[in-house]
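Contributing new records

If you add data, match the layout below exactly. Sequence lines come first and carry their own label; structure lines follow with theirs. Keep one chain per record. Anything else will be rejected by the validation script.
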Amino acid sequence: MLNQFSRTELLLGAANMDKIFAAKVAVFGVGGVGGYCVEALARSGVGALDLFDDDRVCLTNLNRQLIATHATVGEYKALATKERVLAINPEARVGAFTLFYTPETAGQVDLSQYDYVVDAVDTMTAKIELTLRAKAAGTPIISSMGAANKMDATAFEVADIYKTSVCPMARVMRKALRERGVDSLKVVYSKEPPMKPLEDMAGSCRNHCVCPPDTTRTCLTRRQIPASNAFVPAVAGLIIAGEVIRDLIGFAGRRTGGAGV
């Protein structure tokens, strides 16, 4: 019988679609990278998604984040993303949690309940903690490395963290995970050297912060305001979603297209 996933079923088959619908995936961070990842997972038929993000939609998110519109400014990203997922697939089981994932809050989430964990957060302490806890739980995890300050959406690769190069975030992750005895981590990263954001104080969040008034962590708490665009984070998120689907069904087909993708 035809349904909204029929075109995907033509590629993967009914048995694999059943596996995808039975899967439960956690996505940490639903911003520029995570939002597009969630979108693709929902449109692929993933049956259960838990979304974790304590941030609210800000005006400056409109240039790159899927859920960000003038109508959603001020809303919690996790809640707005849940609403969008259910609009795509009303049968999906979606949890939305306004949680800032840290070593102190990590105990609130049992990662063993998931078939896959997506790390699309932007703080190193959260990335490291997610990796350690997912590995301890035996849950597959894929982590997004730096997507800010870049212009080449074709430069992304899928690799083990210990086979990465150039990316500053990947370098920090390699060192931290090696010190903690983690022997592998699947990541999506880019070898494109990051650009330095322009120092335009007239339009800087330092002087003109437009975060919603009750935002816990505003731009003013950042060491550097990252530059970004509409296409680089989106591509990273879509690649991550593709890897999750491939792994959930054990798809071993040959990759085609750009380097490492």
